[in-house]
């Protein structure tokens, strides 16, 4: 990923997060693979890490804890789907569909 693309993503992410449009900046590879609650948590983590005032940003320990929680959300959704015989993808965020809404 180029430096320009990273800068653009970091500038646009908080706006997308607050408008509920994270699907517009998430890698298409994740389409149908990430649980909505997990995506929301990842967005929250990123917004907090991008705060202008460093004192308002989370500690690395806090980031790790939040990432572990996001993973638990994803794994929990996957386990629920497996228990009922699904693939775990049917209620995941369909990012391509969301992109079409933007």
UniProtKB/TrEMBL annotation:
One annotated GO molecular function: transmembrane receptor protein tyrosine kinase activity
Keywords for the protein's UniProt record, in alphabetical order: Kinase, Receptor, Transferase
GO cellular component, one term: plasma membrane
Keyword 4Fe-4S: no
Positions of region (Disordered): 78-102
PANTHER family per UniProt: OS07G0166700 PROTEIN, RECEPTOR-LIKE PROTEIN KINASE FERONIA
Protein known as: Receptor-like protein kinase FERONIA
């Amino acid at each position: 990923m180029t430096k320009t693309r990273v800068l653009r993503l970091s500038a646009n992410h908080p706006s997308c997060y607050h408008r509920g449009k994270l699907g517009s900046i998430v890698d298409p590879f994740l389409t149908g693979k990430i649980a909505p609650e997990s995506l929301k948590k990842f967005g929250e983590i990123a917004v907090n890490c991008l705060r202008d005032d460093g004192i308002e940003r989370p500690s690395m320990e806090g980031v790790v804890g939040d990432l572990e929680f996001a993973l638990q959300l994803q794994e929990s959704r996957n386990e629920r789907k497996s228990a009922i015989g699904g693939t775990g993808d049917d209620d995941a965020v369909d990012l391509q569909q969301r992109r079409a809404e933007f």
